[in-house]
Specification:
It is a single chain. The protein starts with a strand and ends with a strand. Strands 3-1-2-4-5 form a 5-stranded mixed beta sheet. The chain has a single domain (3-118), classed as GTP cyclohydrolase I, C-terminal domain/NADPH-dependent 7-cyano-7-deazaguanine reductase, N-terminal domain (GTP Cyclohydrolase I, domain 2, 2-Layer Sandwich), CATH 3.30.1130.10. The longest helix is centred in the C-terminal third of the chain and has 15 residues, at 73-87. By secondary structure, the chain is an alpha+beta fold. The protein is 32% helix and 36% strand. It has helices spanning 20-23, 40-45, 54-66, 73-87; strands spanning 3-16, 27-37, 69-70, 93-100, 111-118. The chain is built from 4 helices and 5 strands.
Length: 119
């Protein structure tokens, strides 16, 4: 059984949306990242060197979310999961949840995409 580490509500500014007019300005996205790890080695020795670097994951999420522009939050979720798995060897799987208040759907509070990817 894997242990979970969650980074919740990482706030990002992204050019994202299907119509070009929606991508014309940055919108706020909230990203949650669930990281499946074995926390026992780090916890047993209280050793941060055996743990996932939460700060590095947060920076990665923000950098990837804020770089370029894309149409779909599904695309962003896929790229985030791939980047986390590529750069964080202690992470066995990543659950990524991207939340967006859609500018083109004024009566919808938010759209959420959640994916889980593993090695």
């Amino acid at each position: 059984m894997a242990d979970m580490i969650w980074l919740k509500g990482v706030q990002c500014r992204s050019k994202i949306g299907v119509p070009a007019s929606e991508r014309a300005r940055r919108q706020t996205l909230l990203v949650d990242a669930g990281l499946e790890v074995d926390a026992r080695p780090a916890a047993a020795r209280d050793d941060f060197r055996r743990a996932v670097d939460y700060g590095a994951v947060e920076k990665l999420i923000r950098a990837e979310s804020e770089a370029g522009e894309r149409c779909l939050i599904e695309t962003l979720a896929e790229r985030l999961a791939a980047a986390i798995l590529r750069t964080q060897p202690l992470v066995a799987a990543a659950t990524i949840r991207v939340r967006k208040t859609p500018a083109v759907m004024p009566k919808t509070r938010e759209v959420v995409v959640e994916i889980r990817r593993s090695r």
